Amino acid sequence: MKDKKIYPPSTIGILGGGQLGKMLALEAKKMGYKVIVLDPTPNCPCAQVCDEQIAAEFSDKIRSLKLAKKADVVTYEFENIPVKTVEYLEEQGFSVFPFSKVLRLTQNRIKEKEFLRSVGILTADFQAIEKASDLEKALLKIGLPAALKTSIGGYDGKGQVILRNRKDVESILSDFSPRSLIWEKFVPFAKEISVICVRGKYGDLKTFPVSENIHHGNILSMTIVPARISSDAAKKADSIAKTVAEGLEAVGTIGVEMFLLKNETILVNEIAPRVHNSGHYTIDACYTSQFEQHIRAICGLPLGSTKLLSPAVMLNILGDDMICKKNKFSWIDKVLKIDGANLHLYGKKEIRTGRKIGHITVLAEFVSDAIQRAEDAKKFFCQKRKI
Ligand code: AMP
């Protein structure tokens, strides 16, 4: 089963039908595959471009089995898919990539950091928190400032608080109920960077150029490629991502998020076992996109070149940018007049604060021009948010 190559017009099953599922499906359809998605939201973004949707919760094993039976290979676009669903499909003899063990590990920030350290990769100092007395211990051992995060289930900064002083710790202690958290030393990083890495079924590996990421309110706002970092730092980041993918034995695309310190030390913050927001630029700016690479990897096909065709800047469009506007999309004309701007809208019906509803990738001959044009574009759809 593992060695089988899956050629078009076979069917790819995707658990999760948000924008990542949609962009995966678009690439799969381009390559001649059929696509079936399972997602609880009727007519979710992926369903708008794929062959069939099974509308069901991700915990619904019966309907997930129905998806697997209709597909030649199954993948997921979302790291919070219940591991039990993926394990169940594997037990029933279906191929799911990446394997459930990758999902299980990356869903737990403590296990993820233990894994990273076991393969020689640096992370922020951390301590597992389960009961109130662990908070006192972490305060003494790791200290402040710190990021206190839920060990399972958080993303885009959800489920995390920054502890700056003793008073912040006391406020957490005052109504603490035992649960699994992680106390992480706050990292005074110079830049946030990430590397998208693809590992094929036969262990072949490809990495994309390093992304420089700027977050706003813990949500990715802008990705700049090539990252404005030294070539030594870029080589180190690339090698870290490969070590992670190999150590996990992940089949498919993963995103490795890192903190680059002033002295060029690199710490890994998080691993996403899926295509990644900081790799959206690859659609417009690389020989092969991260989405096509994922389809190639899970189907056992040769991976493509990850070469950059042009410097690129990706800007996320969030619900916040639209909510205040009478005509939510009146900025489109102005943005599309910008040289090198490519618009991607996900087709989400509900526009909410913090929700990613699309992105723009601006290409230019020089990265400084791409940044300038992206900043110009942003002024048209977002007056409030800083880059
Ligand atoms: P996460 O949910 O872990 O991806 O965190 C979201 C964002 O919060 C990151 O991209 C960083 O900007 C910030 N952050 C998370 N953990 C830390 C940390 N230990 N030190 C400094 N900033 C952090």
What descriptive keywords fit this protein?
387 residues, alpha+beta, Rossmann fold, Dna Ligase, domain 1, D-amino Acid Aminotransferase, Chain A, domain 1, 3 domains, 9-stranded antiparallel β-sheet, 5-stranded parallel β-sheet, 18 strands, binds adenosine monophosphate
In short:
It contains 13 helices and 18 strands. With 387 residues, the chain is of the alpha+beta class.
Structural class determined from secondary elements: alpha+beta
Report low-confidence residues grouped into runs of 5 or more: none
- The share of residues in helices is 25-40%
**CATH classification class of the largest domain:** Alpha Beta
> Sheet bearing the most strands, described?
9 strands, antiparallel
Helix tally equals 13
Q: Beta-sheet strand percentage?
A: 25-35%
Distance between the termini: 46 Å
State the CATH superfamily name of the largest domain: ATP-grasp fold, B domain
- Which whole number gives the mean pLDDT? 95
Structure description:
32% of the residues lie in helices and 25% in strands. It has 387 residues and is α+β, with helices and mostly antiparallel strands. It folds into 3 domains: 11-97, 3-Layer(aba) Sandwich (Rossmann fold), CATH 3.40.50; 125-185, Dna Ligase, domain 1, CATH 3.30.1490.20; 191-379, D-amino Acid Aminotransferase, Chain A, domain 1. The strands form 3 sheets. Strands 10, 11, 12, 13, 14, 15, 16, 17 and 18 form a 9-stranded antiparallel β-sheet that branches. A 5-stranded parallel β-sheet has the order 3-2-1-4-5, sandwiched between helices. The protein has a 4-stranded antiparallel β-sheet with strand order 6-9-7-8, sandwiched between helices. The longest helix is centred in the middle third of the chain and has 18 residues, at 231-248. The radius of gyration is 21 Å and the shape is globular. The N and C termini lie far apart (46 Å). The mean pLDDT is 95. The structure holds adenosine monophosphate. Residues 124, 147, 154-155, 157, 160, 184, 186-187, 192, 215, 218, 257, 269-270 line the site of adenosine monophosphate (AMP).
